[in-house]
Write a structure and sequence with these properties.
The structure holds two protein chains of two kinds. Chain A is mainly beta. By secondary structure, chain B is an all-beta fold. The chains are: A mainly beta, B mainly beta. The interface between A and B is medium-sized, with 22 and 25 residues.
Chain lengths: ~120, ~110
């Protein structure tokens, strides 16, 4: 059974850092690109970042470029999102998501349940 | 930046057809997909590559595209279809995944 389980969310002060993780199971992790997508309370879906199957190419939303870093450990079937210089507007539920393709993002066919990040003083 | 536009809301009666649109510059040259999200749940893919339906998605969900507008059509809408629906595409110029703002479908 394909499963994505996020962890690492919490409350952090503005300017702080946080590292999210996503444990993948039930599929060949190295065969797919992976995403982070977030959803602020009461708002729509916002794409955050994508990483290619081998970790060699990453894409970021303009709103997080230079502050967030997506990475993956294929030996441990784990996806990460390192977030720095956090702002109140980064407060959201962060979803780990699997793309259906390997190199370029096309569509997401599996979503995790999400982990909550709150940026507040 | 690249954007796609959805109407914020749509109301239909049970049994009617719901049509949710997504428009964007040159969307006709890109693939669109659609997600359904019910309150408190993660999104679920209902249409991919404009017209394809994943296994397990009811046949009443269909996707189409004309020009730069993609459409998700729900035929014979049921109360269980009440949800937020998001379109999504990939823009290779800005190298961005783009979600529409979402359409809240109410089945009265």
């Amino acid at each position: 059974q394909v499963q994505l389980m996020e962890s690492g969310g919490g409350v952090v002060r503005p300017g702080g850092s946080l590292r999210l993780s996503c444990a993948a199971s039930g599929f060949t992790f190295t065969d797919y690109g992976m995403h982070w997508v977030r959803q602020a309370p009461g708002k729509g879906l916002e794409w955050v970042a994508f990483i290619q199957y081998d970790g060699n190419t990453e894409y970021y939303a303009d709103s997080v470029k230079g502050r967030f870093t997506i990475s993956r450990d294929n030996s441990k079937n784990t996806l990460h999102l390192h977030m720095q210089s956090l702002r109140p507007e980064d407060t959201a539920l962060y979803y780990c998501a699997k793309d259906a393709m390997i190199v370029l993002p096309v569509y997401i066919d599996v979503w995790g349940k999400g982990t909550t990040v709150t940026v507040s003083s | 930046s690249y954007d796609v536009t959805q109407s914020p809301s749509l109301s239909v009666s049970p049994g009617q057809t719901a049509s949710i649109t997504c428009s964007g510059d040159k969307l006709g040259h890109k693939y669109a997909c659609w997600y359904q999200q019910k309150p408190g749940q993660s999104p679920t893919l209902v249409i991919y590559q404009d017209t394809k339906r994943p296994s397990g998605i009811p046949e009443r969900f269909t996707g189409s595209k004309s020009g730069n507008t993609a459409t998700l059509t729900i035929s014979g809408t049921q109360a269980i279809d009440e949800a937020d629906y998001y379109c999504q595409t990939w823009d290779s110029i800005t190298t961005s995944v783009v979600f529409g703002g979402g359409t809240k479908l109410t089945v009265l």
